Amino acid sequence: MGKRRDYYRDPNAPKPNSLVPGGSALVVDDRGAILMQRRSDSGNWSLPGGVMDIGETLEQCVIRETKEETGLDIEITGLLGIYTDPEHVIEYADGEIRQEFNITYYGRVSGGRIAVSNESTEVRFVRPDELERLPVHETVRLRLQHHSEKRADPYLG
């Protein structure tokens, strides 16, 4: 096992021992490609994001994490959805077993340059037609699907 293992709708998933508020950014370029990073801990392509620090809002967290993970400055422009499915469990090598808690915001690039962090092996804008061929966790695919549906209202779940 790497540093992280995701379980989704798996009856053999370990029992969570933590719940941590986190957020992600869904940033689209002018061609419709989506800012993604290939995680060094799981090898999956994912949206940039992370967990809140004390003293910051979740929007500030997502802006900070996107900068740390991708090198890009973003502005929050909207809300894709709230993802808190208790059947998504994330097991970390240090023994933490986390129930998913993620709010995914829409964002747009306001500055910076793409850069890989120690949390990723690659960062780039991924075209929607490429996504089927790339390793992407089901729960991230769900967010990408919600984006592609051009929903009038945020997903609540």
Automatic annotation (TrEMBL):
<feature type="region of interest" description="Disordered">
    <location>
        <begin position="1"/>
        <end position="22"/>
    </location>
</feature>
<dbReference type="GO" id="GO:0016787">
    <property type="term" value="F:hydrolase activity"/>
</dbReference>
<dbReference type="InterPro" id="IPR020476">
    <property type="entry name" value="Nudix_hydrolase"/>
</dbReference>
<dbReference type="InterPro" id="IPR015797">
    <property type="entry name" value="NUDIX_hydrolase-like_dom_sf"/>
</dbReference>
<keyword id="KW-0378">Hydrolase</keyword>
<dbReference type="InterPro" id="IPR000086">
    <property type="entry name" value="NUDIX_hydrolase_dom"/>
</dbReference>
<feature type="domain" description="Nudix hydrolase">
    <location>
        <begin position="18"/>
        <end position="148"/>
    </location>
</feature>
<dbReference type="Pfam" id="PF00293">
    <property type="entry name" value="NUDIX"/>
</dbReference>
<comment type="similarity">
    <text>Belongs to the Nudix hydrolase family.</text>
</comment>
<dbReference type="InterPro" id="IPR020084">
    <property type="entry name" value="NUDIX_hydrolase_CS"/>
</dbReference>
<protein>
    <submittedName>
        <fullName>NUDIX domain-containing protein</fullName>
    </submittedName>
</protein>
